[in-house]
Amino acid sequence: MAQQEGMSSAPVRVLEEALGMGLTTAGATTDEVAAEGIYYLEHITITEPSEDDFEYEEIPDDNFSIPEGEEDLAKTIHLVQERDTDTQILEQETILPSKPVIPEVIEDFLCNFLIKMGMTRTLDCFQSEWYELLQKKVTDLPANGNVPDVYNQIMLLETENRNLKKDLKHFKQAADKARENLLKIQKERDYHRMHHKRTIQEKTKLINDLKGLKLHYASYEPTIKVLHEKHQALLKEKMLISLERDRAVGKISGLQATLKTIDAGQNVHFPIITVGHYCEKENRPEGPTQACLRAAREQNKCKMLMKGNTKPTAPSQMVKCQIFPEVKKDSEFPIDMQPSLDVNLCKENPCPAKFDYKLSNILRLHELPVSCILMHPCKDMLISCSEDRLWKLVNIPKGNVLLTGSGHTDWLSGCCVHPSENKLATSSGDTTVKLWDLAKGDCILTLEGHSHAVWSCTWHSCGNFVASASLDMTSKIWDVNSERCRYTLYGHTDSVNSIEFFPFSNTLLTGSADKTLSIWDARTGKCEHSLYGHMHSINDATFTPRGHIIASCDTCGVIKLWDFRKLLPIVSIDIGPSPSNEVNFDSTGRVLAQASSNGIIHLLDLTSGHIHKLMGHESEAQTVAFTHDGKYLYSGGSDGTIRSWC
């Protein structure tokens, strides 16, 4: 028996090792079996009964009817209600409670395994020995004596694994999305950081501009007082002139009566009367040119009175000569002009174009922004104009100030040198154009007529005419000899920002904030042609030294080149978005310099199309100019400095 128990326990150990379970702690299962009773497995063969021997029981019919004579309405209603209740019960779905899945017990698993394999003798031995142990209560099974359902566990594990993979995929997607959001937030952070820095720079610039404007407008109150005093003085002078005019009219009436008496043959003493035009100019200090002109006119008058006249001048003629002052004659526009060999405007320098300029010197000449730089035609000098109402003549390259001109009551916008190199014309925000003697720095003539600020001015090649462009949407051509406006050019619909004479001709070029360039005939004051193409306000326009190309720039940084002979656009170069303040050609005509509001000087090679940059300004670059030999480049900035590049 012990041998059989050892033999029967060996397969159980093998099964325990295969199933990963132990059968030694089965006390709870033994107690349950003892409580419920002992069951034996027997092999029983069930025979199929024959249909002939089977007796069927007759089922009575439920469909009964109410016997006649016993019909009652209440009973009928009660039967109908019961039938409805039965029908509703049958129609309802019977929901059975779910039966929990109970794993197989170990002994049942072993018995089923032996039956399946056909090991009947082993099964009989196992059952006899097993139930003997149960009766003796010797078995010691584990607390969990059930065989695990491996397939269900595998399915559960696979389902859990699949769910974990889905979660992992979702987490990866969430991580990728978080990474993209992080990159986007970093880019936004960098953008806002740059925007913050730009805002700080603009704030600093606005603060500096505000300080400059405060300094600029600090002189308005005393200027208004001075103008008020001048107004009162002019009113007094007007009254005096009226009295003097009435007195002169009375004397003229007396002279007319005297002339009638002379005609009658009577002798009368003729007083010498001088009647002239009294104006404010007589009270102003005369410049050297005005003094020379006045002396020459008086000398010419004396010569005309004494010229070959042996007879004494009639008193009536003397009176008429003294009553009517000399009228200044207008200058004539030249018809055929030839380029002068002494003027460098039409010369083209044979030297190669230069682009490798480097900052060599900084000239601190003005307190406010520099608005214009102009090179002297022959000497190593430059003229600078500024918003501090001063112009200065500077020796280059040392930067020594030779002459300073003051007289404008507002900022200066531009200047131009007379072809004879001894005069200077300046335009200003005080609505005037002034002519200066470059030898002494004195103002010799003031041209008044514009109603708003004057942006630019230019000399005619003959030297007798000055043209000016103004914020009042007009341009004017001034006759220097007669000191009056010859023509007012109407046609632009916005401020005229630039004006320049074509070299050695009567053609005038203007650039306006209405986005157009206009070409005028100075002899008639009429517009001959207009050039369209700019999308923004034009700030400056200029000719090449030969005059066959026009360069223009606008407030969006776009530069356009035009063929002046065909009046067609050649090319458009966008160097924006910073505004272009001024453009200028070098003496070779192959390099175009542009002063930009971002403080960069752009050099455009017209041969290859390459653009070179010069960076050195700490603020906006307002103006730029080349020397005649091309060795130096000068640029003016909003900080009042002029930078020298070589």
From TrEMBL:
InterPro entries the UniProt entry points to: WD-F-box_domain-protein, WD40/YVTN_repeat-like_dom_sf, WD40_PAC1, WD40_repeat_CS, WD40_repeat_dom_sf, WD40_rpt
Coiled coil (residue ranges): 154-188
SUPFAM superfamilies registered for this protein in UniProt: WD40 repeat-like
Keyword check for Repeat: yes
One annotated Gene Ontology cellular component of this protein: axonemal central apparatus
Entry keyword Cell membrane: no
UniProt-listed GO biological process terms: axoneme assembly
Keyword vocabulary terms for this entry: Coiled coil, Repeat, WD repeat
Repeat (WD) residue spans along the chain: 405-446, 447-488, 489-530, 531-565, 614-646
PROSITE patterns linked to this entry: WD_REPEATS_1, WD_REPEATS_2, WD_REPEATS_REGION
Name of the featured protein: Sperm-associated antigen 16 protein isoform X1
Lineage: Eukaryota, Metazoa, Chordata, Craniata, Vertebrata
Gene name in the database record: Spag16
